[in-house]
Amino acid sequence: MKIIWLYFMLLSVIMLSGKEEAVEFRKLNAVEKQVIENKGTEAPFSGKYWEHFEEGSYKCKRCGVPLFRSNDKFKSGCGWPSFDDEIEGAILQISDSDGIRTEIVCAHCNAHLGHVFVGEGFTEKNTRHCVNSISLKFEPSTETSGWQKIIIRIIMNIKVEYLIATDQ
Ligand SMILES: [Zn+2]
Fold first, then answer.
1. Cα–Cα 20 to 30 A to 58, which of 4, 13, 89, 161?
2. Across all residues in the chain, what is the average pLDDT?
3. Is the dihedral angle over the CA atoms 22, 55, 69, 38 positive or is it negative?
4. Is 130 designated active site?
């Protein structure tokens, strides 16, 4: 009986830690909606991240999926966060309604992010994802968090095995 209960506990812990990765849509305020849903553009040099260069990832404000890495961010001087690359599969490019530019949206929730420009020569990749800060949510890199999870799981396993061994 004790063994079954312990396995149930372990299973719950694994399921709960997996739940952290589940995606939920965040409720947006009116200013966020104007950009993310109505495809507006924040004023240049006004956003939170145009001159932000900490290590980490930039996630979608609405659904939380990681979109850009700080390693790909560069100073373009344009007043909006600029990235010369995206996290693979995170971004969709669509023709802007102006018929000229290429709009970029979150591939998961379709949130408007900004536009992508090529051939400007800013970096070797020759690409500038020009993104509204308000469409993003920065998360500092937490390299230990993955390891912490693994360590917790190992400790839980050892504890369960020990308790099973001493069950008699
Ligand atoms: Zn999204």
1. 13
2. 88
3. positive
4. yes
